[in-house]
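Quick start: what a row looks like.
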Amino acid sequence: MKRAFDICAALSALLLLSPLLLSTALLVRIKLGSPVIFSQPRPGRHGRPFSILKFRTMTDRRDEAGNLLLDAERLTPFGRMLRSTSLDELPELINVLKGDMSLVGPRPLLMRYLPYYTERENLRHTIRPGITGWAQINGRNCLGWDDRLALDIWYVEHRSFLLDLSIIFRTVAAVFKREGLVADPRSIMLNLDEERAGRQELSRQGSDSHGT
């Protein structure tokens, strides 16, 4: 039922939103250049990588050595608007049709985070990742990593069709209210790998100090 609903809903949304998709793509091309669609490998079901599709929100600005500038320096006001309205996420409907994603599920994070999940947190990869999820309507980017991942696991263990419908409706309301969204999450929190690598280092230093 979930997969059939995903296909019908994603196809209907693409058809209904096609004018918005086309106009957004045109504006991205004019303001940010090409390519219009940003693609990045993300872990899907069972951790298998797939290419997530989003509208581009950053420029290709580089320093004198040819290295890309930090995300915050490449994120334009137009890009911030796309993120704050979640318009940049619309191409993920294609990922849903392809079977890479579901409408509802844990958000697919970065591939480099995989070594830093606990055994329990890895349960989030036993189902398809989603465009929206339980964590997204309960704090979204304002949550700390431990809380956010705990909400993902709660969803995996309690998922149902009715819960999915509730999450979808609450997501639409949250998007209109722009609740819990930070255009540049890096401005308020560390990446998961940075946070947990730092935590492991502090734990190691604590163990070393107790041993001396």
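That is the whole record. The first strand starts at residue 37 and ends at 43. The chain has a mean pLDDT of 90.
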